[in-house]
Amino acid sequence: MAVRRPSVAEALDALFDPSTIAVVGASRTKGKLGQAVLALLKSNGYRGKIIPVNPSGGEIEGLAAARSLEEIDGPIDVVVLATPVGVALDALETCTRLDVKVVVGVTSGFSEAGEDGHNNEMRLRRIMQDAPFRLVGPNCEGVVRPASDLQLTFSPMFNGLRPGPVAMISQSGALGGLMALRLGERGVGINAIVSSGNETDLTAADLLEYLGNDPQTRVVLCYVEELRDGRRFAEAAQRLTRAGKHVVAVKGGRSRAGSRAVESHTGAMAGDDRVISAVFRETGVFRARESVAAVDAVTALAAGRRPAGNRVGIISVTGGLGVEMTDLAESAGFEVPVLDEATQTALSRYVPFYGSVSNPVDLTGVVLANPTYVGRCLEAVAADPGVDIAIAIITFVPDQQFIEALAEAFDSTGKPILIVWTGSARSNASGEALRERAVPVYDSPARAASGLSALAATTGEVA
Hints:
Helix content: 25-40%
Domain CoA-binding: 15-110
Number of domains: 3
Distance between the termini: 57 Å
Protein name: Acetyl-CoA synthetase
Keywords: Tricarboxylic acid cycle
InterPro entries: CoA-bd (IPR003781), NAD(P)-bd_dom_sf (IPR036291), Succ_CoA_lig_flav_dom (IPR032875), Succinyl-CoA_synth-like (IPR016102)
CATH superfamily of the largest domain: Succinyl-CoA synthetase domains
GO biological process, one term: tricarboxylic acid cycle
Strand order of the largest sheet: 9-8-11-10-12-13-14
CATH class of the largest domain: Alpha Beta
Largest sheet: 7 strands, mixed
Radius of gyration: 25 Å
Shape: elongated
CATH topology of the largest domain: Rossmann fold
């Protein structure tokens, strides 16, 4: 008797916290997709049952292997297809006769493969018409859920992520990996990542609705090449933004050449870019021009602090960087007002006479010899009634107390605070106090400006 097709919510519940995972194409040979999927599942501590599926049977990665899916007794929450396309389609047909909730298609060779993939795509669609399960992909990189120790992917780029408020949906696995890696380096936690691939069944709209409704999600980051269900995507995004959550999107295929590349990547048609931009604006989606700017935007939004307006207070250990940050902020439509007299008086306790206490505040290099000074100055600027967002710019950090003071300043206020740390690449080990709080940290004023723009979009103050 056929198993009832699960709803999107039922399928994704099973996907993100599965009891049983079968890996079709599990291999003993390093370098093969099935071997990588199996190894990453084990090494990341997944606690459920893992069943390798390989025609030779025996034991793989210390686990008893089934020769076929039919040998597995009982229901299977997730089946991963990591085989050549013909074998994957045979396995997919087998799944229609079993109690399977979700299939994750790592396999490629479908609509993205031009004429060669056309017949495979048609067969895939015929199978899915009456399939009693849901499909992620195909041509995807998998699924990651740090809170469940679930790393259902062949890519080690997702190793070591901490749980947190950001959900990611990406038609490109590599771009998803890049963005997750950069967010992880900044201490931004991940709720879930889905590489959606060709989206033959489950689309970005399905995933946005589900992940956005998860109470653990504060920000949803999307990389899309085509909105296959644009109306539902827009409706879901609007509901989330009205509920106080954030959607950040990168849309691939803006240019003519990019549009051609999109079609060969996921088999998608890119759509009218002007229409998509208008839809994003109307529904409150923050559109980032590219993946790095998207990471910068999410870094600012993930801290969960909303500015009351667009007035920025800036402190810097060097005048030049303060000037550059000021120029970038004002060019983006922010105000950099003169600080309140009481604030300037408080700053004068720490800033030498040859510095500046107006805005931007030039602390000068003297603070490097006094590790707590920068934190006290940041607290004073954040407390100014005429400041909505505070930015601290530092270079190299000679003392761990320096970072601790910045972390304490972050804890002392509910206003958004951004740190521009130009020496962070060399001082990475000392930044854990900032990472564990998910303090937004950037390596240049230009990247901090991307974070500023995302914060401004939450207030409606800056276009």
